[in-house]
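Recap from last week: sequence in, structure out.
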Amino acid sequence: MADRRVPASYFRLVQRFPLASIRDDEHLRKAQAMLGEVLAARPDRGTEMYLDALSDLIELYEARLEPLPDASEADVLRELMRSHGLTQERLEAAVGITQSTISAVLNGKRSLTRDQVIALANHFAVSPSAFLPASTPRPARDGLSEAIITASA
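Predicted C-alpha cells:
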C-alpha cells in the first residue's frame, strides 16, 4: 500500500506561501517568485505536490487576464529567441545549454530539464511557468486536494 501522507516539505512551503487563489498582479509576482524558488529547490514529493498546485493557481489567474492558447515549450523558446534576436549558438553562450540540446527542444525531440527552465527563465526575465505545460484536469494525487482544502479552511 502506497504512503498517502502529505510530506512535511509540502506544509513548510504552504506556510511560506499559502496556496490560495491569486488576487492581483502583486500577488501574482509573489507567486511567480515562489515558483522560481521551488523550481530551484531540491525536488522531493512534497515540493512536487506544491509545485503542481502553485503552477495551477498561476495558470488560472493568467488565463482570466488574457486567455492564451497553450504553447509548447519549443514555441515559447522559439518566440523568446526571435524577440531577443538570438541564434541557437548565441543562446548557448548566454545560458550554457548546448546548441544541440536547444535544437532538439525546438524540434520537439526532447524536453527542457528543471535546471534549463530556470536558466532560460532567468535569462529572458520570465516566469519559469512560461515553459511549463498547461495543466489538465486530473484526479487528486496523494491527498493533494484534501490538503489544500484543509489548509485553506
